[in-house]
Amino acid sequence: MESKFEILRGDARNANPPVLSARCSKLIGRAQLANLLADRTLRPSDPLPFPEADAVACELAREAIYWALFAQRELAPTSAPGPTQAMSAPPDKIALATLWAEAAPELLDRAAEGLGQVERLRVELVDKSFADFAELSPEQQAATAARLHTFAERLIEPLVAPQRAQERLWVRRVQWLLAALAVLIVLGLFAKSWKDKHDLTHDLAASASWTTSSQHDECSCPSPAQSCAACPNFFFHTLADKQPWIVFDLHQVQTLSAVVVENRRDCCGERAVPLVVQVSADRKHWKTVATRKDEFDTWRADFPTEQARWVKLYVSRSDYLHLARVRLLP
User: Fold this and answer.
1) Which residues does 58 contact at the CB level (< 8 Å), separation at least 6?
2) What is the separation, in whole angstroms, between the first and last Cα of the chain?
3) pTM (predicted TM-score)
4) Which among 314, 275, 280, 315 is positioned nearest to 296, based on CA atoms?
5) Are the C-beta atoms of residues 284 and 278 closer than 8 Å to each other?
6) Cα(145)–Cα(281) distance, integer angstroms
7) pLDDT string in tens for the chain (330-residue length)
8) What does the DSSP 8-state code read for residue 136?
9) Which among 78, 38, 82, 86 has a CA at the least distance from the CA of 61?
10) Spatial distance between the Cα atoms of 227 and 126, rounded to a whole number of angstroms
11) What is the CA radius of gyration of the chain?
């Protein structure tokens, strides 16, 4: 029967790592943190202000070993747990000696690099405490700390492999998600570009003549043009009328379902609200199909399809009216 250690190594090697529980991942994190602190205590970047740092490193490495063995214990076993393997027992109720006894022998052999070393490490670790490490000579503290740190590192190594594999899987999923999102954005931009070109192709206003309620002396393009060198920011400009308007004549009754309005480009956008759009088939009976109350740069108004020849845009108050472009879409 395969041990948990063999299964763990085999799954990591075959890129099919076991799914670590949240608790197991937390235990691995504790082991990594404790061993990292042991390493920094053994090899500090700056001199430490107190002696016997190696004794502290011994205890930190011992803690790392405890959490690593506990994480190994949390991995799903291939058989039912024995009487000593109460999986629900909290960490502070399980002694290091118990975890050591339950650990797979090949796991300890690999981490210790030899059966003789396993027994030596067991004596140094089990039933010891920080007080015992502090009583060792400075030379013994340094040697023991280095040995325990290396042992902890090798215990943690097979645990980190599936954790990193899960992280790589998560990263790949995020990359696929971002790639899919990028494709959707590109498709959206393409669709918008196509729609804009489609609107330009089917713009009824391109051939519609227009008239206005009045004409300001500043400038105006000749109907039916909506752009000219004399007026780069708008194509018509009324006087301050009571309800200034512009009316487009499509020359025959046509299908209409949307209006796109671009406001004056350089200033005074507030003058174009509230903007009302009306349609008529006989220029006597008008139907309101859209109203814009908030200031805008470009406004698209979609509405149920209407049959109309004339389209009127007006501001329902006294002011000037000037627009940069109007599109009438079927």
Assistant:
1) 38, 130, 133, 136, 141, 144, 145, 148
2) 75
3) 0.47
4) 275
5) no
6) 94
7) 344 444 444 444 444 556 678 888 889 999 999 999 999 998 898 888 888 899 999 999 999 999 999 998 887 454 344 444 444 455 556 789 999 988 888 889 888 876 678 888 988 888 788 898 999 999 999 999 999 999 999 999 888 776 666 667 777 888 888 888 898 998 888 887 776 666 667 899 989 999 999 999 888 899 999 999 989 999 999 999 999 999 999 999 999 999 999 999 999 999 999 999 999 999 999 999 999 999 999 999 999 999 999 999 999 999 999 999 999 999
8) S
9) 38
10) 89
11) 40
CA distance readout (Å), 12 to 6, 58, 250: 10, 30, 72
Q: Are strands 209-212 and 298-315 parallel, antiparallel or unpaired?
A: unpaired
Q: Which domains does the chain have, with CATH numbers?
A: 4-176 (no CATH), 204-329 (2.60.120.260)
Q: Give the angle 184-189-194 at the CA atoms, nearest 5°.
A: 120
Looking up tokens 């050591």 gives 100
Using CA atoms, how far apart are residues 310 and 246, in angstroms rounded to an integer? 10
With CA atoms as reference, report the closest residue to 113 among 81, 150, 80, 82.
150
Distance CA(60)–CA(39), nearest Å, equals 9
Burial of residue 200 (number of CB atoms within 10 Å: 0-12, 13-18, 19+): exposed
